[in-house]
Amino acid sequence: MKYISYLLIIVGVIFLSVFGYQYYQNEQNTKNSLAEAQNRIAQGQENNEKDKGASSDTSDNNNNNSESLQVDDGEAFATLDIPKLGKTLPIVEGTDPDSLDKGIGHLSNSVLPGENEQIVLSGHRDTVFRNFDQIEVGDQFTVNMPGGSHTYEIRETEIVPEDDTSVIREMGEEALVVTTCYPFSYVGSAPDRFVTYAYPVD
């Protein structure tokens, strides 16, 4: 009986060590991605200021800021402010497991802020979207990009099965759709998704 107790203690220590390492690794990945995104935003702002200065001297420079932002899979290129939670989180291109380990994933076949259609962001409930159960209608998100910031207000939330693809669709207007796993306290692979629909604030 004594040996069984020792074995259970050892197994418990191993599980705690693995969990602790994974938690630390996720925190580091998010921290590194946030630094990468903030650096890219700062560079974009600096370039915008240079473009404005150049356009004041020449009349042929009106389209400098009209080029679409180019991002590679796994690249952190923007941040998401969630005032309700007091968080600023990195947005990474792609929603594959590697990208979601770095921060909030941007669904590649959805548009970017300012392009007047559906923008889809996803993240894990136990990493970047920890405490997301506090989010409700009326709360705001701000997406900070190299070209500027875009603020959205949540007007609607819903819970759908994980295989419900109707969430991703053309909406005919700009909408920021943010999704995460649900229930929030579920142990293992959660069966549903919590979805928020936020729209631009004038």
Automatic annotation (TrEMBL):
Region feature Disordered, mapped onto this chain: 44-73
One Pfam match: Sortase
Leader sequence residues: none
Bias type Low complexity, positions: 55-68
Enzyme class: hydrolase
GO MF entry, a single one: hydrolase activity
Superkingdom field: Bacteria
Coiled-coil region(s): none
Keywords, in A-Z order: Hydrolase, Membrane, Transmembrane, Transmembrane helix
Listed EC numbers: 3.4.22.70
TM ranges: 6-24
Name of this chain's protein: Sortase A
Organism of derivation: Virgibacillus alimentarius
Top-level taxonomy: Bacteria, Bacillati, Bacillota, Bacilli, Bacillales
